[in-house]
């Protein structure tokens, strides 16, 4: 029978059938058959064994006596794979007898090549129903009726041809293939028994495959995935089919399943566990990498005769090499070299590690035994010569420099690859032990680690010991590779140091192994490694850190860290561009190294004034505010950013129950004390029985738990928390301190001091004991007694005088049962002698009284909003513009002025004020499209209470102040008069002008009032307002259609606290500046800007190591000015039409 000619690919029908991979008599039935039918629709239009026209060009095989013209197997024609294309010896249709011995023969497409005998359902199928290795065939014989037998050690396959002639051709072809196979086996020195030893699988085991009743045995061998019915057939070598991974791709589907996708079929596998699935994925991805490797380098190296055999065992065509020893080795010997460690032999693949093989390295391998000088260098290194030894020549201090000076490129390549090599030292009296390499600049290390499957999310749950797999790991040349064992040549996977973005060390016993570390990569993957030995784990962490951290961040490696990595950030005045910095977290300190500027002082995370997250879920920004500096860390990569976020939040939280372990403020006072004291100062000074009355137990407990967890994020609001609940929480916290506020060691000394009769001696003793307290305890005692001093000042209202407060706080602070009167006497003495004991000066006492008086006045007057954040008056202030990156959160006491607020904001951002820099705080009203520069002496707290939801504060340069100062200095008199466009807010005033537009009016402004006249000749003013009751805002909202762009809004507050509002417009910008300057002059008695030089300019902090802001200013004065002004552009520099926004910038 002659072989039928196959149709061209263009004529292959699109509708295809998914061929069963089972043998005859094992077809699916019932539900499984239904699944198979369902799969057919999924693959409709994808030929099984062929491509659509034009999608792949296949080589044309010449026909011969035993090779009829065939459609070649589709996988054989793919270029670039490492497996040589095996020519088809013979192919055609044969009838096959089922294994049950039935007389019903089934037609099969049979194909024979040098390696396998395979048969398929169709000549268009890509995957066989069965393959038999030619090496397993023991005999081929003819039997009656055109039949032939293919006999293996454990099974006989019976085929029937259509004629005796065809049967004879098949028998001859099979016998010749078997003979050739045995001849090749005899020539191989690695296989003394005459049968080629099978390549050990990278991974093998049982997997469920969709469409099959029982599990299949799957083996990943080289660049192929082989499927077997069971383990027994795997050992026999007779399988179902194999999948060439050069056309394959793997992806995970859910927890335990994954898909192997090819152009011909999708194989859906199900593993026993998630860990096993990850291991299968790694193995198959390795097979894909090997399949896509190239033989170009290998063929060039094999061109030299001495490189055609393994340097160790003599095996032919070795495809691995030791790049520092300059020898080629086979795969098995490469495993032995790998076991020695990268410090002795650096093993690389000739086919897969393409980037390693430079032209010089290829020449070095080709010239290993032919170049005398290179052989001499090898001999010297083998005897222990140091690669980095001093040569004696200052211009070329090392052998590598000498080789470069002499132009010896081969020598240079050889020396470069041996820089981290150790000479093995074998002790004949003891067994060989694995040596760990010393951490050198090239960073090499090796040893066993326990590894879990990589994850795409943070590890929230504890990983059990059973989830870790033991792997031989090698860190060399910037690559961390992990292998099945120390003898394995091909790695299961690798992590490039250049792709590592973070290295984290969880606390001991976080997972099944006591010591673990996490590696985060740019590809959003997390790798967890574990060890029992703390010393070995620490050594691995240091080596990996040195491998991926640049020299810039080397200082961060000097101490043991909890987390190390690179993150995008913005800081200082460089908010317009994102930079990448290096950070390390050590305890509660965040160390930072930036590409610009010297080493920074670490951020004390438990002393942060603010720790918040801004932005949406896709673009999150972590804001860290410490006094004098603000840092924005951006979440460019979600996985490692979330890891950093959790670690920083944990480090910034309270670590325990003692005072020193709490979140601390600027003065080393716990934030929990701040929150409670400031809230009671604002809302409870006049509350009757404050601290004597107890709050509700449940509310007190919930409040105390939230404060202990993260006091910084708690905002106490009047109406939501009762003062008695807050006071009870404070007392409970102080009573529950393990060591107490006065410490157990000094507690008795304090009580004894209270019995001293001489008051001066008693006060002196108190001062001595106070100095002996720990810093946090000492600062807390002063803050608490200062607060109680204020409380007793209002004893007429709250009924809590010094004695009553002492009765309450004595047992609380000294943790007694209340029977010891001496505890109360100590507290009473400290309150009574507060000024002397704590050395409070007059200025501090005056500010404290002013603040308390202002708070009480506001509450009595009813101006408190009722929704203001407690006590600390946290205010949001912006620098230059309203944006998330420029946002600052600052505590505003009652005594703070606008100038102090401005200086505080500039201090945080390290903005230096130069001469003629008029930095001012503005009150901006977005609804009215107007803003008002605050006078430098104006108190900020009352303004905050009056701000609406559409208003905010911003600190920026007042561009027109210099021109206004020149005008005030040159003018005569303190009055101003002239015509302006005037419009009333009819909704407020209701004066009923004939039109809602602007009208010309004549104004006179003097030191006492502002008068409005209908015209210049009028003698009686239509309206008159006291100048002290006016607030003048620059700008007029656009919907009023102002006649000019130079206008301002005036607000008048009556004695009944009713607000009236109107709008004024000037003809020129100069007029606007003159009017506004006069307003400021008469309202503030001629003091428009502070006259003290110290207030006008501050010294820019000198850049020096360890005491600078995160981004210090650099460059000339002009460059600094441009950097400061980078947040907004000057409206006059553009050609746009001037509008009200121009007025806001320039007036």
Automatic annotation (TrEMBL):
<dbReference type="GO" id="GO:0008360">
    <property type="term" value="P:regulation of cell shape"/>
</dbReference>
<dbReference type="InterPro" id="IPR000198">
    <property type="entry name" value="RhoGAP_dom"/>
</dbReference>
<dbReference type="InterPro" id="IPR011993">
    <property type="entry name" value="PH-like_dom_sf"/>
</dbReference>
<dbReference type="GO" id="GO:0005886">
    <property type="term" value="C:plasma membrane"/>
</dbReference>
<keyword id="KW-0863">Zinc-finger</keyword>
<keyword id="KW-0862">Zinc</keyword>
<dbReference type="GO" id="GO:0005547">
    <property type="term" value="F:phosphatidylinositol-3,4,5-trisphosphate binding"/>
</dbReference>
<feature type="domain" description="Rho-GAP">
    <location>
        <begin position="653"/>
        <end position="838"/>
    </location>
</feature>
<keyword id="KW-0597">Phosphoprotein</keyword>
<dbReference type="InterPro" id="IPR001164">
    <property type="entry name" value="ArfGAP_dom"/>
</dbReference>
<feature type="domain" description="PH">
    <location>
        <begin position="973"/>
        <end position="1084"/>
    </location>
</feature>
<dbReference type="GO" id="GO:0005096">
    <property type="term" value="F:GTPase activator activity"/>
</dbReference>
<protein>
    <submittedName>
        <fullName>Arf-GAP with Rho-GAP domain, ANK repeat and PH domain-containing protein 1</fullName>
    </submittedName>
</protein>
<keyword id="KW-0479">Metal-binding</keyword>
<dbReference type="InterPro" id="IPR037858">
    <property type="entry name" value="RhoGAP_ARAP"/>
</dbReference>
<feature type="domain" description="PH">
    <location>
        <begin position="87"/>
        <end position="179"/>
    </location>
</feature>
<dbReference type="InterPro" id="IPR037278">
    <property type="entry name" value="ARFGAP/RecO"/>
</dbReference>
<dbReference type="InterPro" id="IPR000159">
    <property type="entry name" value="RA_dom"/>
</dbReference>
<dbReference type="InterPro" id="IPR052227">
    <property type="entry name" value="Arf-Rho-GAP_ANK-PH_domain"/>
</dbReference>
<keyword id="KW-0677">Repeat</keyword>
<feature type="domain" description="PH">
    <location>
        <begin position="200"/>
        <end position="289"/>
    </location>
</feature>
<feature type="domain" description="Arf-GAP">
    <location>
        <begin position="295"/>
        <end position="365"/>
    </location>
</feature>
<dbReference type="GO" id="GO:0007165">
    <property type="term" value="P:signal transduction"/>
</dbReference>
<feature type="region of interest" description="Disordered">
    <location>
        <begin position="1"/>
        <end position="57"/>
    </location>
</feature>
<feature type="domain" description="PH">
    <location>
        <begin position="442"/>
        <end position="549"/>
    </location>
</feature>
<dbReference type="InterPro" id="IPR001849">
    <property type="entry name" value="PH_domain"/>
</dbReference>
<dbReference type="Pfam" id="PF00788">
    <property type="entry name" value="RA"/>
</dbReference>
<feature type="domain" description="Ras-associating">
    <location>
        <begin position="871"/>
        <end position="960"/>
    </location>
</feature>
<dbReference type="Pfam" id="PF00620">
    <property type="entry name" value="RhoGAP"/>
</dbReference>
<dbReference type="InterPro" id="IPR008936">
    <property type="entry name" value="Rho_GTPase_activation_prot"/>
</dbReference>
<feature type="compositionally biased region" description="Acidic residues">
    <location>
        <begin position="24"/>
        <end position="41"/>
    </location>
</feature>
<keyword id="KW-0343">GTPase activation</keyword>
<dbReference type="Pfam" id="PF01412">
    <property type="entry name" value="ArfGap"/>
</dbReference>
<keyword id="KW-0963">Cytoplasm</keyword>
<dbReference type="GO" id="GO:0008270">
    <property type="term" value="F:zinc ion binding"/>
</dbReference>
<dbReference type="Pfam" id="PF00169">
    <property type="entry name" value="PH"/>
</dbReference>
<dbReference type="GO" id="GO:0005802">
    <property type="term" value="C:trans-Golgi network"/>
</dbReference>
<dbReference type="InterPro" id="IPR038508">
    <property type="entry name" value="ArfGAP_dom_sf"/>
</dbReference>
